[in-house]
Write a structure and sequence with these properties.
Layout (H helix, E strand, L loop, with lengths): L5 H17 L4 H14 L3 H12 L6 H14 L3 H14 L4 H13 L3 H15 L8 H16 L6 H9 L6 H4 L4 H4 L5 H22 L5 E5 L2 H10 L10 H17 L5 E5 L2 H10 L9 H11 L3 E3 L27
Parallel strand pairs: 1-2
Antiparallel strand pairs: 2-3
Helix pairs in contact: 1-2, 2-3, 3-4, 4-5, 4-6, 6-7, 6-8, 7-8, 8-9
Length: 335
C-alpha cells in the first residue's frame, strides 16, 4: 500500500492513537499528528473530533489547536465557525508563532490576502522583539508575511528587511516570492524555465534545512510538585536532585557551561512523572535508573518538547517563577 493513500493515512492515524493510549504524557503531539493524517485521508469530521478532544483536556497550546481546527473546518464547509475561531485566536494574541502562521495561511488559502497580511503583522508586532536571535518559528512567520506582502504589491517595511537578512538561500526572498513566477511556469522559453527550476531548487533547499534542523541539546526541568512526586516514588534519585533549589541552579549552570563551550541550540524540557514512567517502560528499565534521565531529556527534545534557552529578552524565566529571566535565573549572580 502506498504511504499517501487515504487508507494508509487512516491506518497511521489509528496507530498514533493507540500509541497515545500507551503514553499519555505524549498524548497531545500524537493526537495532533493523528488529526493531520485524518485530514489527509479526507476524514475532516474525524480530525475535528480529535481537536475537540484535546481542547476539552486542558492542552498545553490551545490556541495552536484552535488554529488547526479552524483550518480544517473551513475545508469542509464550516466557514462561519472557522471565522469565529480565527477571530478568537487573533484576539487572544498567541505567543506561539505557529498559531499566527496557520491562521494567516488559512485566510490566504481562501483568497483573503489582506486579512492574512494583517494577521501576520499582528503576530510580528507581538513576537519580533529584537532583530537578533529571532527564533526559527518567528523567522518562518515573517518570511510568510514577506511572501504575502509581495503578492499584495506592498512596499518593504522593517520586518520584510529583517526577513531578507535572515534568509540564507542563494536565491533572495524577493525573487522567490515574485508573483510573476506563476507565469514563468507556463512559459515555452527554455531560459525562463531553467531559471524557475533554479529558484525551486533553492526553495526546496530552504525547506530541507528547516526540516533537518537538529533538535536542541536539552536538560530536564522537573517542576517542584513533579520533583517531589518523583523522589517520593524513587528515592534512589535523591543523589541527582538533593533539593529543588539545587535542581534549578544546576540547570542554569549546566546550560551556561554548554554555551561557553560553544554548544549551539540549547533547550529545556519539562519533565513529568507519568511521562517519565512511560518512557522507562518503553526502555524496559526502572525509573529509578539515573542513567535513563539524559535519554529521557533527549527523547523529549527530539519530539519537539524543548523550550529554547536562553529565553528571549524580557521573557519569563524558564523556571516558572513568572519573573523576567534577566531578573531571575538569567541574572548576573547566577553566573
Amino acid at each position: 500500500m502506498r504511504p499517501d493513500t487515504p487508507a494508509a493515512h487512516t491506518t497511521e492515524a489509528e496507530r498514533l492513537l493507540r500509541t497515545a493510549a500507551q503514553y499519555p504524557g505524549d498524548r497531545e503531539p500524537l493526537y495532533l499528528q493523528a488529526a493531520a493524517h485524518r485530514e489527509l485521508a479526507g476524514d475532516r469530521p474525524g480530525a475535528t473530533a480529535l481537536y475537540d478532544t484535546l481542547l476539552d483536556d486542558s492542552p498545553t497550546n490551545p490556541l495552536l489547536i484552535r488554529a488547526l481546527k479552524a483550518a480544517n473546518l473551513w475545508e469542509y464547509g464550516h466557514e462561519a465557525e472557522a471565522r469565529a475561531i480565527i477571530d478568537g485566536v487573533r484576539r487572544a494574541q498567541p505567543e506561539d508563532a505557529a498559531a499566527w502562521e496557520i491562521t494567516a495561511e488559512t485566510l490566504e488559502a481562501h483568497d483573503e490576502l489582506e486579512a492574512a497580511e494583517s494577521t501576520l503583522t499582528e503576530g510580528a508586532a507581538l513576537l519580533v522583539t529584537t532583530a537578533h536571535d529571532v527564533p526559527h518559528a518567528t523567522q518562518s512567520l515573517i518570511t510568510t508575511r514577506h511572501r504575502i506582502r509581495r503578492m499584495l504589491a506592498l512596499p518593504h517595511d522593517d520586518w520584510d528587511t529583517l526577513a531578507d537578512r535572515l534568509h540564507t538561500a542563494a536565491v533572495p526572498l524577493d525573487e522567490l516570492h515574485d508573483p510573476k513566477r506563476l507565469w514563468s511556469l507556463g512559459s515555452s522559453d527554455p531560459a525562463e524555465l531553467q531559471a524557475e527550476i533554479a529558484r525551486l531548487r533553492s526553495e526546496l533547499g530552504t525547506y530541507r534545512t528547516a526540516l533537518s534542523r537538529p533538535f536542541p541539546v536539552a536538560v530536564l526541568h522537573w517542576p517542584e510538585a513533579e520533583l517531589d512526586e518523583l523522589l517520593a516514588a524513587y528515592p534512589e534519585l535523591e543523589a541527582e536532585y538533593p533539593t529543588y533549589r539545587a535542581h534549578l541552579t544546576d540547570i542554569e549552570a549546566s546550560l551556561r557551561e554548554l554555551a561557553q563551550a560553544g554548544t549551539p541550540n540549547l533547550g529545556i524540557v519539562r519533565a513529568t512523572v507519568p511521562s517519565y514512567e512511560a518512557f522507562a517502560a518503553s526502555e524496559s528499565t526502572r525509573p529509578s535508573n539515573a542513567d535513563l534521565l539524559p535519554q529521557y531529556a533527549t527523547t523529549l527534545a527530539a519530539r519537539g518538547r524543548a523550550a529554547a534557552w536562553p529565553p528571549a529578552r524580557g521573557a519569563a524565566c524558564w523556571c516558572g517563577s513568572e519573573a523576567a529571566y534577566g531578573e531571575c535565573h538569567g541574572g548576573a549572580d547566577q553566573g
